[in-house]
Amino acid sequence: MKNGLQLLAAGTLGALAAYCNALLVPLCVLAAVMLLDYATGMAAAWSTKTLNSRVGVTGILKKVGYLALVAVGMVVDYLLTAALRRTGIAIEMNYCFGLMITVWLIINELLSILENLGKQGIPLPEFLLKAIDRLRDGVDKRTK
Predict the structure, then answer these.
(1) Quick one: which of 53, 58, 63, 90 has the most CB atoms within 10 Å?
(2) Quick one: DSSP state of residue 21?
(3) Residue 59 to residues 25, 37, 40, 65, 134, Cα–Cα distance (Å)
(4) How far apart are CA 47 and CA 43, in angstroms?
(5) How many structural domains is the chain composed of?
(6) Contact by Cβ (8 Å): 107, 101
(7) Res 143 pLDDT > 60
(8) How many Cα atoms sit within 13 Å of 31 on the Cβ side?
(9) Sequence-distant (≥ 6) Cβ neighbours of residue 107 within 8 angstroms
């Protein structure tokens, strides 16, 4: 049973990697910052004595929603490319929406990590807060 699950997981991850070749690195970065955000959020809640399992589960569900949002962006990319190809327009939009969504979520997670560190009393350099805020504004303006 264990080998079957490992085989299924490896096959699924391999297929996902093949399908998401352009998004593989951004998705790995997103997964890493989501884990770091969750860990810093738990640490901040513990240090402020507001640790709550319900809030923790809500955070996990939110992260799953983020991954669903990236999947929706990838489907939109696929549908637009297929529709354009069908009408005879040869414009490749490889992972445009999926990549924009992934980068936007990474920036949001970075801001959340900084907020969590600030809640723990860790001094944050102002230039870092401004730089990440500018990145967020830049992505927001380009997606509107």
Answers:
(1) 63
(2) T
(3) 23, 10, 12, 10, 25
(4) 6
(5) 1
(6) no
(7) no
(8) 6
(9) 132, 135, 136, 139
User: Tokens 């990145």 label which residue?
Assistant: 135
Say if pTM beats, i.e. exceeds, 0.90.
no
Residue 80: name the closest of 69, 64, 95 by CA.
95
User: Is the residue at 84 inside a domain?
Assistant: yes
Q: Which of 1-10, 33-42, 96-105, 129-138 has the lowest mean pLDDT?
A: 1-10
For residue 125, what is the DSSP state? -
How many CB atoms are located within 10 Å of the residue 118 CB? 13
In a domain, 100, yes or no: yes
Give yes or no for a contact between 92 and 81, defined as CB atoms under 8 angstroms apart. Answer: yes
| Digit-coded pLDDT (tens) for 62-120 | 999 999 999 899 888 888 888 888 888 877 666 788 889 999 999 889 888 988 998 88
Q: Which domain holds residue 103?
A: 21-143
**Residues contacting 80, CB < 8 A, separation 6+:** 93, 97
Q: Residue 14 falls within a domain, yes or no?
A: no
* Residue 3 domain-assigned (yes or no): no
